[in-house]
Structures are given as C-alpha cells and as structure tokens.
Amino acid sequence: MKWSDHAQRVDLRAATAAVCVVLVWSTSFSFARDAVQQMGPWTFRFYSTLAGFMTVLPFVRRSWLEVLQLQAATRQRVLWAVTINGTMVSSLNILALAYYPATTVLTLMYTMPAFAGAMEAVRLGRWSWGGVLATGAALSGVLLYVGGAPAGGALLIVLNAALWAVGTLLSARTGQPCRPSTLVTVQMLIAFLCSIPLLALAGGQGESLPPWQGRGNVLALLYVGVLNGPVVFGLWYVAIQGLGPVRAASFTLGVPVVGALAAVLAFGETLDWWQAAGIGLVVLGMALRLRGVAAPANGATR
Predict the structure, then answer these.
(1) Cβ–Cβ < 8 Å for 15, 244
(2) CB neighbour list of residue 18: distance below 8 Å, 6 or more residues apart
(3) pTM for the structure as a whole
C-alpha cells in the first residue's frame, strides 16, 4: 500500500502523533539534564545519537535510496530539514542543558511556534500588527522568565528555536512522497556521522568515557536517543505532513507548561512566580500569533 493511500486518515493520525510528541518533548529535557551534567554534553550527545541510530540501522539503505530518487530540489530540502532538526538544533539543545535548568531551555526553545507562524505569515503575505504584538508578548515572556540569566546564552537558545522553525517549515515542503520513516532514518544517519568527531572534543574537555556509570544515565541515553530521537521525530514528521507546519507547531504550545510541571513535580526543579508568569506570556503570545495565521484548507503545506 502506498503512502498516499492513507491520505483519508492523515488528519486524525497527525493530531494523535502531535499529542504524543508533546508528551515526550515535555519530559525529555528533564530526563537529559542530570545525565548531561554528569557525563558532559558531547559524550551524552554521541552515545544518545548512537542509541537512536542503531534502531534505524536496518532501514538506512532503503531510505537513502528513496532520498536519492527524489527530484533535486526536493532532495535538497529534505537533507537541509533533517540536518537542521536532527543535528544542529538537537546538538545546541544538549549544550544548553549543560548550563541551564530544563524549564529554562523548554521555555526558550518553544518560542519556535512563534517563529514558524511569523515566517509562514511573511511567506503567504498575511502579516499583521496583531501578529507583531503577539510575537512581542511571547518574547517578553521569555525575558521575564530568564530574569538574570546570562543574556548571551539565552539569545543563543532563542536563535536555535528560530533555526528549528526553519527546519519545521522545510520539513513540510518535502511533500507526501517522502515518508516520515525515510526522513527520520536519514536524519539519524546524518546526526550519527556528525556526532563522531564529538568524541575527540569530549576527550579534550576531560569528559568521562564510557558513560555507563549509573542506571539513570543509561535510561536518559535511551530516552533521549531512542524515544526522543527516531520515535518522536517520526511522529513529528507525520504531524507536519498531516497538519501543516503552523498547525503542528501549535500543539507544542503545551510543552513549556507540561514540561515545567513535570520538572517541578518529578525532577525537583523550582519555579518562581515570575517564571510561571513568563511561561504564561510565552504560551499566550504564541497562541495569539498562531490564531492569526490561516493554514491551507487541507492542513498541509506543499
């Protein structure tokens, strides 16, 4: 059965996939943070990527051949999208967790829907002052949340969120012929190859190798490398293809809230009142921004 034969079921499946993505992304930062701080960001990145790559290894040849058969322009978008999402953005997230609490990284990273909505509004010519104010509210919430945190590091994470928005929009433009399983397999292949040089960087910074020095670290590697790797990104590409990039991104509005609650209740992080207010402003601002962007009638961007 061809991928296109499932078109009549794609909306329900995409919405379900998006909800599952939110649940995983809400907790993955907290799972990863302690292990990142114990093992070092580059050691954690290499071994978590290795764990994810091993799960898709049987499908690498088939997926790579499928990508090579795409038209040149589509193939270029695919390779850029999976490299941005799986290598650039993911690596910077791991690095950020070495210096910031999980709730801070969550709040900064999930300004992504605001950036995705704004970029799509500009592309479609549907920009408005309301959109400007909504985006301003979201970014004001970020500033309120981070408070006295180093401005340079916070700005880097926000720029990473903008980069993720670019990867999300590119993913939507790959079209239905490229299956989510193919996207995620090629993404993990590129991410693993790019993570190999990190071993030298990890050794140069005195990070311990190998990292099996506690059950918690192993669980974090598997959670981030497998569940938050090929599994969640496979679901994410299903959501993007079925709902379109802006609608799929709107589901992630709940990630900072759910993630903050999980970090406080399950992982012992603290959340002050101004941080809670900042998260509220982020979610409100992004919700207003996304509400003002009209998505295509069938929910997909070609």
Answers:
(1) no
(2) 235, 236, 239, 243, 248, 251
(3) 0.78
Identify the CA nearest to 169 among candidates 296, 286, 301.
301
Contact 17, 239 (CB under 8 A): yes
Q: Helices 102-109 and 255-267 sit at what angle, rounded to 10 degrees?
A: 180
What tokens appear for 100 in the block?
A: 């910031």
pLDDT in tens, 79-117: 999 999 999 999 988 888 888 777 778 777 877 877 777
DSSP state of 70: S
Integer Cα distance of 226 and 231 in angstroms: 6
**Residue 271 Ramachandran class (φ > 0 left, ψ -120 to 50 alpha, else beta):** beta
In this predicted model, what pLDDT tens digit does every residue of 142-195 receive, in sequence order? 667 666 555 566 778 888 889 998 998 888 776 556 788 899 999 999 999 999
Give the integer Cα–Cα distance in Å for 231 and 251: 17
Around 34, how many Cα atoms within 13 Å sit in the side-chain half-sphere? 17
